[in-house]
Structure to design on (234 residues):
């Protein structure tokens, strides 16, 4: 590998940004393509698929053979609220490959016995997220139903371009939330990215069922990256 390409790739990985190392198997030359860079034609389509799936492999494009080595940060799930939904969601997400972190300043809820083997922060979101910023490979689910806790985290998730942002509550509740987020400086376009009510519409009623609906929506949002930007159905 070209030393400059290796240096660039390592910098992207440290910053939790996705990159694909594209190697022309004909002449051995390689280059780094960052997520969002425009590459035209068949090769560009193959690179979009590599970013979406995380799969590496050889592809034929424009009469040449390339090897695409995809390097994606591991997606993670940040949950705001140590509630019953979170108790069901945490182990499910872990099985699906999404490390979970839970933030809730209410110490009666955020206890290790309720959330064993989970990164748990009994602090305000603004304090935790200052130390551990969100990024585009993070999904955020706000489920406290308390604006004092949820709103800051939702605004931070929108600013960080988290690949998924969901919030618990009815449409009436969300309408009030929209007003508050606008007052915090969020744009209407940003707010439109929030999944509210949270989770796929599967008729979920119990906390465990809601957790299933949320996780399914998170996985769909992650796998649909790139397709939606190109106007292609996931």
């Amino acid at each position: 590998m070209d030393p400059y390409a290796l240096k660039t790739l390592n910098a992207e990985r440290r910053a939790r940004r996705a990159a694909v190392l594209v190697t022309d198997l004909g002449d051995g030359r390689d280059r780094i393509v960052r997520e969002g860079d425009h590459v035209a034609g068949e090769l560009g389509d193959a690179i979009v698929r590599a970013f979406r799936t995380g799969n590496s492999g050889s592809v034929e494009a424009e009469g040449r053979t390339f090897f695409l080595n995809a390097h994606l940060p591991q997606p993670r799930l940040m949950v705001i609220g140590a509630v019953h939904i979170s108790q069901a969601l945490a182990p499910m997400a872990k099985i699906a490959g999404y490390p979970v972190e839970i933030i809730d300043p209410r110490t009666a809820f955020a206890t290790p016995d309720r959330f064993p083997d989970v990164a748990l922060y009994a602090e305000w979101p603004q304090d935790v997220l200052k130390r551990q910023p969100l990024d585009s490979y993070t999904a955020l689910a706000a489920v406290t139903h308390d604006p004092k806790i949820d709103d800051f985290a939702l605004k931070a998730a929108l600013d960080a371009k988290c690949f998924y942002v969901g919030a618990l509550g009815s449409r009436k509740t969300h309408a009030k939330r929209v007003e508050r987020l606008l007052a915090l400086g969020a744009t209407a376009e940003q707010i439109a990215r929030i999944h509210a009510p949270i989770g796929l519409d599967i008729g979920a009623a119990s906390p465990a069922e809601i957790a299933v609906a949320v996780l399914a929506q998170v996985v769909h949002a992650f796998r649909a990256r790139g397709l939606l930007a190109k106007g292609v159905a996931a």
